[in-house]
């Protein structure tokens, strides 16, 4: 089956630039009518600007497609419902949601303050839930729909200085799996993409030490537009049998990521004491422990 989006209506959050812009343009090129959502704020959350969303919508229309700009916030229940309503008001339906909106407040855990924590959780985790929930009843009633959520290996594997971002991104994986399970009976799918791409968000990564500079140089080779084909596929009817999965996209490389499953078990017939756990259980399991690694330690080969 062709991964066409002909006559479908797709909502893409955070679509004013970077990965979101690439997805919005690709959805339109595949035939979708697109709601281009973006607040247009700076990375610090200041200075809302309708310009980025408007420019992407105009770019789609100039190429012969159909698009409308929207600047409501994903981080509130009302804002999320307004975004979905924008699709209904302009195009009469909604077929797919791409939860891409994001921000960063990188800080070492022991220095992170409440605002830095809440700002990231609000946009990534709350935003993904709010927008998904706002579309859920329409998907349910029409017995069809697709969710595509952006996660990150910062949550799946780990990273330094990103406790807020990592927690939100791993939470999105659990949310996506719950949506896939709850909505399966209505032919609604939910999947995650962990994108590797150079964008406005990743441009804030420090590049002072030789190691940091090398990491940034690798990231700069990974074009934001490379993420779009997977998003279009997952939103299309061609992916009708794909749900509850996590994919990573890294330049021309696609990775299927694992889910948490038991690795090793030990049993004590008379029950465990704290001492027995230390003397028996931990030594038996130690060889199966996961190392304290970061995302670039685990996925460290050059992009293809």
Automatic annotation (TrEMBL):
Listed transmembrane segments: none
One Gene Ontology term of the molecular function aspect: 2,3-dihydroxy-2,3-dihydro-phenylpropionate dehydrogenase activity
Domain Ketoreductase positions: 8-204
Keyword Oxidoreductase: yes
UniProt keyword list: Oxidoreductase
Listed EC numbers: 1.3.1.87
Catalytic EC class: oxidoreductase
Coiled coil listed as a keyword: no
Family membership: Belongs to the short-chain dehydrogenases/reductases (SDR) family.
Protein's name in the database: 3-phenylpropionate-dihydrodiol/cinnamic acid-dihydrodiol dehydrogenase
Organism: Cupriavidus yeoncheonensis
Gene encoding the protein: hcaB_1
